[in-house]
Amino acid sequence: MARVIESGARAAIASAASAAAGRLRALAFDKRMAAALFAALALLPLVSPLVGGGYLLHIGERVLIFAIAALSLELLIGAGGLVSFGHAAFLGIGAYAAGIAASHGLGTLAVALPAALAASAAFALLTGAIAVRTHGVYFIMITLAFGQMAFFVAASLAPYGGDDGLSLPGRTLVLGTRVLENRIVFFYVTLALAAASWLLVSRLVASRFGRVLRGLTDSETRMQALGFAPYRYRLTAYVIAGTLCGLAGFLLGNQAEFVSPAYMHWQRSGELIVMVLLGGTGTLYGPVLGALALMVLEEGLARLTEHWKAILGPLLVLVVLFTRGGIAGAIEAWRRRTTTFPELLADLQGRGRAALARAEQAAMEATAAAIGCGRRAEAGLGAAWLRWRAALRPRLEPLATLAARSARSADGIVRGAAKACARAESLLGTMNRDVAALAGSARRHLSAGLGRCSQTWHGGLRPRLAGLARLAGRGIARMAARAVPWRVALHRALKSAAGLAGRSLSSALARWRRR
């Protein structure tokens, strides 16, 4: 009976293992590598009593904590193309939130963890609102400035240790118990949080949000043309990365039971960047692998010599120079060389199907975005036309009234000019008639006088009368000459009045057109 039970148990274990292996083979290579790393780290508490004891477990805890921080930085570097040189500030803020809460007697999980996440998110939101407006080396320098600002603020906190740091009275309480004091429990809690962080980052990178971030890294102008706002997406990624790094800081403060401003120094930010680059950017298991490799190199070289940094630096340079894509890139290159043709064909087919699915999804999203943009543009144009018409009508009505008034005034001016011309013509006619009547009267009077004179003094007075006639002729000629300038002056006055009326009408029409 015992043999039957034992054989059944072995068969169940074998079937479960084969099923797990089948599910693992069905995953992508990145996911298989990440699952293998987390599975290897999960076996560490079982192996540590046989190899290194609690020290090996301590190294494993630090690897997992810095893996969370490196994963948060990978979200910025790998997906968003943002190299943050002040990322350690979030690590220190999360640690200080746990330490300050514990120093005030609030070292419970319900208080300390939300405080650490909220403080990190708030600092990321405030600094990211300025930092993500820049690019390239400017982004690196401004994040470095914010990180050093947080470092000096922490060093000036005299009530919380200042430069010397702050010792925690104990690890964070969970439901009033000190369950995290158990190193194995704390290790597995850290492992679970690291796995959850990896899952969150992988889902974000594979989602529409992650595709937009990668698209902004490739061509920001093209993404803006599709209707995506770069600032909001980058700020959201920056806040998520800062919050995840704050979680790592919370775990680091509990693991060491000590908080120091050195957690925020730029050298710590440089170590996080080295972890990402050493493991390999563009892969999700690369940051975990980089944190593991850097911790192992530090501990191993520190056992050999006290000048271990002089050896670690050239090693990192060689890795960056000769392994394209870090350790993950080297693994990928070795995998390509050792892959058989059927496996390579199957991998290419799988990647082709995945790329086709992503392209179809992107096309659908682009089409939906274009339709949405068209609808928004149509609605915006309609609303703009209504607003423009409502705003223009009150302005056009006074212009129309002014134009009507100007037309009426111009019509009045023309009518007045016509009346003035008619009056001038009548005046000229009257003057001509008066001059003609005056000349006829003078002639008649002169003829009558001459007749009487000829009758009275005929003979000797004829020369005198001839002279008098010539004098009268010259007088008449002078009177006619004096009448001509008056007529010319009157014509000129009438012409100037008509020209003034025309210019007034033209200026009134021009003012109406400009308004």
Describe the 3D structure:
It is a single chain. This protein has 515 residues and is an all-alpha fold. It has 2 domains: 27-338, ABC transporter involved in vitamin B12 uptake, BtuC; 409-514. 83% of the residues lie in helices and 1% in strands. A two-stranded antiparallel ribbon has the order 1-2. The radius of gyration is 51 Å and the shape is rod-shaped. The termini are far apart.
In short, what is this structure?
The chain is an all-alpha fold and 515 residues long.
Secondary structure layout:
Blueprint (H helix, E strand, L loop, with lengths): L1 H25 L2 H14 L1 H4 L6 H26 L8 H16 L5 H23 L4 H20 L10 E2 L15 H24 L1 H11 L1 H6 L4 H27 L1 E2 L6 H14 L6 H19 L3 H15 L3 H13 L2 H116 L5 H53 L1
Antiparallel strand pairs: 1-2
The main β sheet shows up as: 2 strands, antiparallel
- Name the helicity range: over 70%
Structure annotation, total helices: 17
Taken in chain order, the helices and strands follow as HHHHHHHEHHHHEHHHHHH
CA radius of gyration is 51 Å
Low-pLDDT segments: 1-26
Task: Give the CA-based shape.
Answer: rod-shaped
Helix-strand category: mainly alpha
Total strands: the figure is 2
What is the distance, rounded to the nearest whole angstrom, between the alpha carbons of the first and last residues?
108 Å
Give the averaged pLDDT, no decimals: 79
The number of domains: 2
| Biggest β-sheet: strands ordered side by side in the sheet | 1-2
In the CATH hierarchy, the third-tier topology of the largest domain is known as ABC transporter involved in vitamin B12 uptake, BtuC
Strand content: under 5%
Name the CATH class of the largest domain.
Answer: Mainly Alpha
Question: If classified by CATH, what would the architecture of the largest domain be?
Answer: Orthogonal Bundle
